[in-house]
Amino acid sequence: MADHSGHRARLRREFLTRPESFPDHKVLELLLFYVQPRKDTNPLAHELMEHFGSLQGVLDAPPEALEQVKGVGERSSALFLAIKELGRRYQAQRASVENIVSSTADAADLLRPYFYGARNEMVYLLCMDGKGKALACPKISEGNVNTAQVVSRHVVEKALTNNAVLAVLAHNHVSGLALPSAEDCATTLYLRDLLEKVGVKLLDHLVFVDDDMVSLRDSGYL
After folding, report:
1. Which DSSP symbol is given to 180?
2. How many helices (H) and strands (E) does the chain have?
3. 162-176 b/e (C-beta count within 10 Å ≥ 16 → b)
4. Can you tell me the distance from the alpha carbon of 191 to that of 200, in angstroms, rounded to the nearest whole number?
C-alpha cells in the first residue's frame, strides 16, 4: 500500500499558506483525508466534483446521493453534512441577534445565514424592539423546492411571542431570481395590514437567492 503521508503533509502546508486560493477539488481531497486515512483521496475528490458539478453541489447533495458515488460511505457523507452545518452556524453566530437593524443591509446581514445552503423555500420573521434591536428570528414555515406557505396566524403569533414592535419578513427562492412574485407582493401587503392591527410594523420583506437579495421596500412594493 502506498505511503501518502508525505503528500498529505505537503497539501496541508499548502492549504495553510493559501486557503483562499486553494482549488475546490483539493479542499475536498483534504477533507477526505480525515475519513479515509489510508487511501489516495485525489481521484475521489475529482469524481465528486464531476458527479455533482461543483463544490457547492457536493455540499448541497443529500447523504443518500453522496453515498451512490463509489468510495463515499456514511463517514464521508456525515463529514460533508457537518461542514455545511458548521458553516451555517458560524454565519448565524457572526450575525448575532444583539445587533441593531438600522438599514436594509443590516437586516440582510442578519437574515442571510438562515438560508445558507437551503434546499427548500423557508420563511423567517426578524423580530425587533422599537429601537431596531433584533430580539429573535423564528422560522415561520418551510416548504418544498418550489414554495413555502406563509401561515398568517403563525406570523402574528411569532411576532407577539417575541414582543416585536418592528419586523422584517424574509424568504428564499431555491431556484431562479430573487425577484418578488405577484404572490410575494400580495402576501406582504396582507401581512403588513394584519400585523399593524396588533401593533407591529412590518418594515420590509427580503427575498434571497444564493448571494443575491431583493428588498420589497427598496423596490417600491412596500
Report:
1. P
2. 9, 6
3. bebbbbbbbbbbbee
4. 10
**What is the structure's pLDDT at 171?**
93
Residue type, position 179, single letter: L
Give the C-alpha distances (Å, rounded to integers) separating 180 from 12, 99, 186, 207, 208: 44, 27, 10, 7, 10
Distance CA 119, CA 163 (A): 30
The answer to whether the CB of 179 falls within 8 A of the CB of 192 is no
User: 212, 181 in Cβ contact below 8 A?
Assistant: no
DSSP 179: P
For residues 66-78, b (16+ Cβ closer than 10 Å) or e, as one string?
beebeebeeebbe
Q: What is the CA radius of gyration of the chain?
A: 21
Q: What is the DSSP letter of 114?
A: G
What single-letter DSSP state applies at residue 181? P
In the chain, the amino acid numbered 188 is T
Q: Enter the pTM of the model.
A: 0.64
User: 152-161 and 182-196 are packed helices; what angle lies between their axes, rounded to 10 degrees?
Assistant: 50
> Helices (DSSP H) in 18-151: which residue ranges?
24-33, 42-52, 55-60, 63-66, 74-94, 104-111
- The Cβ of residue 216 has, within 10 Å, a number of other Cβ atoms equal to 20
The pLDDT tens digits for 138-177 are 999 988 666 667 889 999 999 999 999 999 999 998 877 7
Among all chains, which residue has been given the C-alpha cell 475536498?
Answer: 28
Return phi, psi of residue 170, to 5°: -150, 140
